[in-house]
Amino acid sequence: MKILAIESSCDETACAVVEDGTKVLSNVVATQIDAHRLYGGVVPEIASRMHSESIYAVAQKAIEDANCTLKDTDAVAVTYAPGLIGALLVGISFAKGLAMAAGKPLIPVHHIAGHIAANYISHSDLKPPYLCLVISGGNTNIVHVENYTKFTVLGRTRDDAAGEALDKAARMIGFEYPGGKYIDEAAKKGDPTAFSFPHPKVAGSEFDFSFSGLKTAVVNLVHNAQQRGDELSQCDIAASYQKTVCDILVQKTMLAADRYGFKKLSVVGGVSANSGVRAAMEKACGERGIKLYLPELKYCGDNAAMIGCQAYYDYLAGRRADESLNGIATLPLDSIYGE
Predict the structure, then answer these.
(1) 166 shares a domain with 100
(2) How many CA atoms lie within 13 A of 125 on its CB side?
(3) Are residues 67 and 208 in the same domain?
(4) Do 102 and 198 fall within a single domain?
(5) Longest Cα separation, the chain
(6) DSSP letter, residue 298
(7) Relative to the CA of 45, which of 13, 33, 107, 225 has its CA 20 to 30 Å away?
(8) Strand order in the sheet with 75-81
(9) For position 282, which CATH number holds?
């Protein structure tokens, strides 16, 4: 079964053709990083306009790279939540038009479920149930993956996501957008013990995250140094901050793994590409005898292959949409995959 998948939830216009859930025939991504770098972050209106300009060419290339035609595909899948509403609507409108014109079923896919499915592409031996940590620019969740279409969220961020916290701290330190990768690079040259940052906790919710206070701590550190005329090492701040984020992610995730007896852990999302996160998770899992699954780097960030993978399982579960499908900016994963 071939699925043409479309992803446009943020600043990547992506299309892919995926066969039988895990065989990626094509995976095309048009990035908008250069356009948003000028503003230090994603500008929703610009993102929407650039999706509109790129989506036809990206879809056409995905079909060509897969050596097939739209007629050869069996369904069209699209990310419909969560994300920037204008960006989502571009992909949804395009997908609805394609599905209607070609007479193909339309499969609505949740963005976070897509990230979880990314590891099925890279690891054929990974099968539910297992624990998954989803860490990206907009989401941080600890998820019990019960089966391919049923998820229970054990913990989530109460404010900023891990990726957002890294990007915003990077901007404060002096790195350009997207800052997460620059923090990762600088951290390799810095002292992770040079600065002490807080480990915020959420009262009554031991698996939930809060990164807002951590981000504020960096702002205060830099502002105070500027007022005193002190010069701080970018690399030392980056190393200390990244270590703190890693420690928080590992501590919460391992707490959940130990509590519920999980022996398989998947880590997905854009931040799963961070070398510090990967190393910390590998160490923690090795100490506990937990098998760790990490996606290939090309499937960590937003892409349409992961949407095509999840769409396959959603299709088998009977999920379909019609021309009334709309975008939803905020939608908890277990609100639709919890039954």
Answers:
(1) no
(2) 6
(3) no
(4) no
(5) 66
(6) G
(7) 107
(8) 23-31, 12-19, 2-7, 75-81, 106-110
(9) 3.30.420.40
Instruction: Note whether residue 43 is domain-resident.
Output: yes
Assess if residue 69 is contained within a domain: yes
The token duo for 163 is: 């990726």
φ/ψ of residue 315, rounded to 5: -60, -45
Q: 0.90 cut: is pTM over it? A: yes
- Amino acid, single-letter form, for residue 310: Q
Give the pair of three-digit tokens for residue 80.
């419909």
Do 196 and 246 belong together in one domain? yes
Which residue, among 121, 167, 168, has the nearest Cα to 22 in the 3D structure?
Answer: 121
Together in a domain, 104 and 29:
yes
Q: Give how far Cα 280 sits from Cα of 109, 119, 244, 245, 272, Å.
A: 30, 19, 11, 10, 11
Residue 122 within a domain? no
- How far apart (Å, rounded) are the C-alpha atoms in residues 252 and 256? 6
Give the CA distances from residue 65 to residues 35, 61, 69, 86, 304, in Å, rounded to whole numbers and listed in that order: 26, 6, 10, 28, 14
Task: Let me know whether 290 and 327 are in one domain.
Answer: no
**Cα distance between residue 179 and residue 193, in whole Å:** 21
- Same-domain pairing of 240 and 96: no
| Residue numbers of the domain that contains 314 | 2-115+302-337
Shared domain check, 180 and 39? no
- Specify the number of domains making up the chain: 2
233, β-bridge pairs: none
Answer yes or no: is 121 within a domain.
no
103: left (phi over 0), alpha (psi -120 to 50) or beta: left
Strand order in the sheet with 130-135: 150-156, 140-147, 130-135, 264-268, 291-293
